[in-house]
Amino acid sequence: MKNNHRDHERAGDHPHDKYHKDTAGIIVADIGETVMGFIVDSVSEVIRLPESSVEPAPAVIANKIGTEYVRGVGKMEDRLLILLDLDKILGANELRNVNKIATEEAAATV
Asked: How far apart (Å, rounded) are the C-alpha atoms in residues 38 and 86?
């Protein structure tokens, strides 16, 4: 069974080494048919945003980031939150690779 975490440790390049342990976090997302985690530098807050508060992104925001990557904007109190489309940020090749790895991991644990 291939374990990417252990492969990094053997190489002396642990993926967590470059992140500050007090602020780093993992964002878990359901992308396509796979649940995956993203290591992020920091997490300032975790919120639940009701779908009713999500609107299409204004052109000024969507054009600056790229309309294909913005799912919309969420309004929460006095804040405007840009919602990214992770399916689009990760290209088809990346999603295929992730699905391949997940399938191999699942087969190896049987």
From this structure: 11
